[in-house]
Design a protein that fits this description.
heterodimer; A: 366 residues; alpha+beta; Rossmann fold; OB fold (Dihydrolipoamide Acetyltransferase, E2P); 2 domains; 5-stranded antiparallel sheet; 20 strands; 25% helix; B: 303 residues; mainly alpha; MetI-like fold; two-stranded antiparallel sheet; 1% strand; disordered N terminus; disordered C terminus; transport (chain B)
Chain lengths: 366, 303
């Protein structure tokens, strides 16, 4: 087991920079998820850690040693691929033991390790089968088994659940988490699914356009996003963004959304925003769960307003309501008993204690 | 008008389904018709050879029904199989084919692996180039090749012309490009992650080839082997040009040059020799048919 460090790592393909100088410290035993839209450089980063791609610039260290020019087989890593990449002509046991056999481990030890990994993954009955006789979920377990038996310094996962159906994906997500809790191997996991990232990770690395947008625990990313990209990428349905500006009103700070609609900024937030130039184009960022039906005796900072609902989506435990505010589409989450109906007006309330204020031009969260 | 259409919609759909299955039935009948036609077309000559091989020379030249054997005899077979000369041709052919297949596989499998997987400067061009060399007909090549071996003989004193083993240098020019091309297509259809997984598991390039690629691409490998064997076994032009002494001849040339004397055609033995010569490839095909078809189609669609 080991820590993994990336220092100003760059990957260039001819003229295109796929990864633009990223710095990342992954601690021993940590489960880090790289997440971002396709083409953001997350898979390239993982493949550079694996040694499957050369790095154009910078340093990659595993366990303190620079591995820039170390071939993959000497990096002591194991990788799980999206399409499993099981050897079709070998049985499950042979697949899992291939790496050990290449390194000439004693037969008895290979057997013990394979049996142990098979038990951990609940595939003991399958060890004599060929990959084509297995279901997608079973194949993914075997692929994980192949990684576990090697007892490597680092596990690398490249979108391992993307080929599975939704139900199996949830199940395998839990399996992966369980395995990590048992073996505690440092893990780097790549996915484009923010739910997977949030549920699995100790820390999430959000990437976009070859750069790291933010590194943090799932809760930090959700509640304190650093940029507009992170704010909109993490969370489903996505955060609402409403153009707005700040106004001074008799010593207090007001947030003006439309000509007719302005809210007082809650005092604990007002101090932070005091220095923002009043002329700046700003965005109010507010998550759907912070727009709910208006209740009597609301706490301070929860401001009511009227909206005409365009569409309602009953989800069972809540109803999603969609409406527009001066042309800006918004989404809110109301109680199923709030009486939300398509096309009808509803009195909603926005909880500004959980607001974010963003610079519209730079995308930075203020 | 519209009401009429609506009224008829139910039955029309039925008729449509019915007609679809009827179309299918007709398609099948036509396919079988043509299959049988082509089967007859390609099986009649060997049948005629078999019939003729069972006749004595007298019966062949007699004006009887050529499609019937009145006095069946195995004398042609006995004569050929006990003739040292024929057995010599047979062994020459066998040696040439086996060694050529071995040489071909030893060259084209690693070559295909390198061209399909190790992306190096010019690898794509080289792969196309390999295929283009296959397109050059042997009738264009045999004179320069002959000249080349003659010059080598003059310069070094190593006489290769009129030796059966000269064919070991020539046949690979036909088999290596084609087999490499088949194997490139086959290797290219193997997912990239498979070799990446092997490399991460600690395999070298050579181990990736021998322990992953060759077993996975076995059908393609067998197809290539069969092809190389068939080409070497059935080559006619090159051995006709390069070998002349009877002890150096391979089967196809041997049969023609020794069994046709002047204008006398020993038809019974020619047919017998040709049938016996066709036997080894036939046996190999029969055993490896499934692999062969799988190999060819995979190479064709994914290559």
């Amino acid at each position: 087991m080991a820590d993994v460090t990336l220092r100003k790592v760059v990957k260039r393909y001819d003229d295109v920079e796929a990864v633009r100088g990223i710095d990342l410290d992954i601690a021993d035993h940590e489960f880090v998820v790289l997440v971002g839209p396709s083409g953001c450089g997350k898979s390239t980063t993982l493949r550079m850690i694996a040694g499957l791609e050369d790095i154009s610039d910078g340093d990659i260290m595993i366990g303190g040693d620079v591995v820039n020019d170390v071939p993959p087989k000497d990096r002591d890593i194991a990788m799980v691929f999206q399409n499993y990449a099981l050897y079709p002509h070998m049985t499950v046991a042979e697949n899992m033991s291939f790496g050990l056999r290449l390194k000439h481990y004693p037969k008895a030890e290979i057997k013990t390790r394979v049996a142990e990994a098979a038990r951990m993954l609940d595939i003991t009955d399958l060890v004599d089968r060929k990959p084509k006789q297995l279901s997608g979920g079973q194949r993914q377990r075997v692929a994980m088994g192949r990684a576990i038996v090697r007892n490597p310094k680092v596990f690398l996962f490249d979108e391992p659940l993307s080929n599975l159906d939704a139900k199996l994906r949830v199940q395998m997500r839990i399996e992966i988490k369980k395995v990590h809790q048992k073996v505690r191997t440092t893990t780097v996991y790549v996915t484009h699914d923010q739910v997977e990232a949030m549920t699995l990770a100790d820390r999430v690395v959000v990437m976009n356009h070859g750069r790291i947008e933010q590194i943090g625990t799932p809760n930090e990313l959700y509640h304190k996003p650093a940029t507009r990209f992170v704010a909109s990428f993490i969370g489903s349905p996505a955060m609402n963004f409403v153009p707005c500006r700040l106004e001074d009103d008799a010593g207090k700070l007001n947030l003006r959304l439309t000509d007719r609609l302005a809210f007082p900024v809650p005092p604990q937030r007002a101090a932070r925003y005091q220095a923002v130039p009043r002329t700046d184009k700003l965005l109010l960022g507010i998550r759907p769960e912070h727009i709910a039906e208006s209740r009597p005796h609301a706490e301070s900072g929860v401001e009511p307003f009227e909206a005409t609902l365009d569409v309602t989506e009953p989800m069972g435990m809540e109803t999603l309501v969609y409406f527009t505010l001066d042309g800006t589409p918004l989404c809110g989450r109301v109680s199923p008993n709030a009486g939300a109906q398509d096309g009808s007006p509803l009195r909603l309330a926005v909880d500004l204690n959980n607001m974010h204020l963003l610079n519209e031009v730079t995308g930075a969260v203020l | 008008m519209s009401t009429v259409t609506i009224d008829k919609s139910g039955p029309t759909r039925k008729v449509k389904y019915g007609s679809m299955s009827r179309d299918r039935a007709w398609a099948l009948r036509w396919s079988y018709f043509f299959l049988v036609l082509f089967a007859i077309f390609s099986l009649v000559p060997p049948l005629y050879m078999l019939i003729t091989s069972l006749k004595s020379s007298a019966e062949i030249s007699a004006a009887t029904n050529p499609w019937w054997v009145y006095h069946p005899t195995l004398s042609n077979y006995v004569e050929l199989l006990t003739s040292n000369q024929f057995l010599r041709f047979f062994w020459n052919s066998a040696w040439v084919s086996i060694i050529v297949v071995t040489i071909t596989m030893l060259i084209s499998v690693p070559a295909a692996f390198a061209l399909a997987r190790m992306k190096f400067w010019g690898s794509a061009t080289l792969a196309t180039g390999v295929f283009l060399t296959y397109l050059i007909p042997d009738s264009l090549l045999f004179i320069p090749l002959f000249k080349m071996f003659a010059v080598i003989g003059d310069w070094t004193g190593i006489q290769l012309i009129n030796r059966w083993y000269v064919l070991l240098f020539i046949y690979p020019t036909l088999t290596v490009p084609f087999c490499t091309w088949i194997m490139i297509g086959y290797f290219a259809s193997i997912p990239k992650e498979l070799d990446e997984a092997a490399i991460i598991d600690g395999a070298s390039w050579f181990q990736t080839l021998t322990r992953i690629f060759i077993p996975v691409a076995l059908p393609g490998l067998i197809a290539a082997t069969i092809f190389a064997f068939t080409v070497s076994w059935a080559q006619f032009l090159y051995p006709l040009v390069f070998t002349t002494s009877t002890d150096q001849l391979v089967l196809p040339v041997g049969i023609i040059t020794t069994l046709i004397k002047g204008d006398v055609f020993n038809w019974g033995q020619i047919m017998t020799g040709a049938l016996l010569g066709a036997a080894p490839p036939l046996i190999i095909y029969a055993f490896l048919m499934d692999y062969y078809i799988a190999g060819l189609t995979a190479g064709a669609t994914k290559g």
